[in-house]
Amino acid sequence: MIKIAPSILSADFANLERDIQKVSSADCLHVDVMDGAFVPNITIGAPVVQSIRRCTGMFLDVHLMVEKPARYIEAFAQAGADLLSVHLEADHPSRIAEALRIMDRCGVKKAAALRPITKAEAILPYIEELDLVLVMTVEPGFGGQAFMDSQLETIRRVRAIVNQYNPACEVEVDGGITPKTAPLVVEAGANVLVAGSAIYGAADIPAAIAALRGS
Ligand code: DX5
Ligand code: ZN
Fold this sequence. Notes:
CATH architecture: Alpha-Beta Barrel
Helix content: 25-40%
Number of helices: 8
CATH superfamily: Aldolase class I
Largest sheet: 8 strands, parallel
Bound molecules: D-xylitol-5-phosphate, zinc ion
CATH topology: TIM Barrel
Shape: globular
Number of domains: 1
Number of strands: 8
Order of helices and strands: EHEHEHEHEEHEHEHH
């Protein structure tokens, strides 16, 4: 089944509760955390995730675009995240492994995220313990960018690794997902599609979610 994860990066932050309600027909909510160091942009932190948790029962998929993410796992888990993604480029492998151990201890689902420059094989040391792999289909940092076709090959390779070592693991894509690119990423093996501008920029949001799902 294809899952749709609206990214609140394209929502109106002054009307977040209203904008979260607008996407209630989706499967989970994608929350982009940016620190101004791992990526040039700055967004939100754990206190905002805590407020979001109080106003929705949706599954919270929290994408940490931060340097040395192990420092923040506990705070985001306590704030109510259901799944945390850490970028493999954001710290040394031993500290990424530590971040995953903290997620285990905190009882949240575990994901590894890949910038476009990172090879699919980078997930191999962690694959057996991951719940999800997040393949970026734009350079992380901003919403509304154009989909990178070159990432279709990375999605295919990630899907092959997942099928071989941990078939229950999900494959998520993030960046430039539209009704045009959605069928391409699904064909390449993605099953969770993040979309910000294609959902919040649509006149009919439930219809946009259904269109991305292919239903
Ligand atoms: C970008 C973020 C994305 C972003 C996607 O760094 O990780 O989640 O919101 O936005 P669109 O769907 O507009 O490309
Ligand atoms: Zn994201």
